[in-house]
Specification:
The chain is an alpha/beta fold. The chain contains eight helices and ten strands. The strands form two sheets. Strands 3-2-1-4-5 form a five-stranded mixed beta sheet, with helices on both faces. A five-stranded mixed beta sheet has the order 8-7-6-9-10, sandwiched between helices.
Amino acid sequence: MKILAVDTATKSCSAAVTEDRSLLAELTTVREQTHSKHLLRTISAVIEKAGLHISNIDGFALTTGPGSFTGLRIGMSTIKGLALALEKPVVGVSTLDALAMQGAPARQLICPLLDARKGEVYCARYRFVQGVLQKEGRERVLPPDKALADIHEPCLFLGDGAQLYRSVIQTTLGENANFSSPASNTIRAFTVARLSVKRFGSNDPDDPAGLVPCYIRRSEAELNFRKKPPTRR
């Protein structure tokens, strides 16, 4: 099965084409520009490098969040449009799941952290049990100190939030704080594709029309709307 996977949840933009768990082509960039300026070019480039045409793609995979609200919307609208137009299945993958997978083959607790701004991080905890990634608890958005509060064992941190709050993590956890290689802090579309394979194989894709981003936290626009006083009539 040929899968086109993308991630646009952070400053990085990644696209990959895989076939039967093997990587055919991948392109990852980190830019300040909005992903809308280069996502389609990136997709076209990896499909061309894989020696394929978009019609050869059997399914699509993408990160659904948490992450940048704008980035997630751009990635989702693009992939949903392609999936619906080509009538191909699509699978959504948690951004934090993808980051945690890049911590393999860690034997310790894994805690991916994504910068959520406003002094907070998106976080979750994972372990590899007999080679299978398992999530412990739910995904949350918290200040860094609260995200670390009950960790009392060696833990591997990765993601842009781990980079941003590295000193806080080291001060709080001391020798229990471990960090991934810099390359693992950027989400790879190849990882997204790998996580989608099982669901494609089980014929358990998402409904493209009903697939929505998982923001965890309300957007600034929604919060501002809720603060507005009711309109008098």
